[in-house]
């Protein structure tokens, strides 16, 4: 396991885990974002579960690289969907999105052969 691999995967896993906890714990920030982006609040637990599964998949990928590849690809797609939600309502406040997306892309690149 190369240090650069860990440096790409661990921050992405931590960030996605933190976002999953916020979504699943009923924190106000995900609710406010969902309202601002026109995303139904009932989707928040599902989105949190997807983020949590992605985070766990990244970590499991340290032992089973194919799982990490699939998880990181899923997270990249997840955040492309988030970008679409932002753009659909004309929201260009993309700083947090860019951090999550970049971390996901870096994790995906780390899992490529």
From TrEMBL:
Predominant location category: membrane
Protein name: DoxX-like family protein
Compartments it resides in: Membrane
Provenance organism: Nocardiopsis flavescens
Membrane topology (UniProt): Multi-pass membrane protein
Keyword rRNA-binding: no
One Gene Ontology cellular component annotation held by this UniProt entry: membrane
Membrane-spanning residues: 43-63, 70-88, 94-112
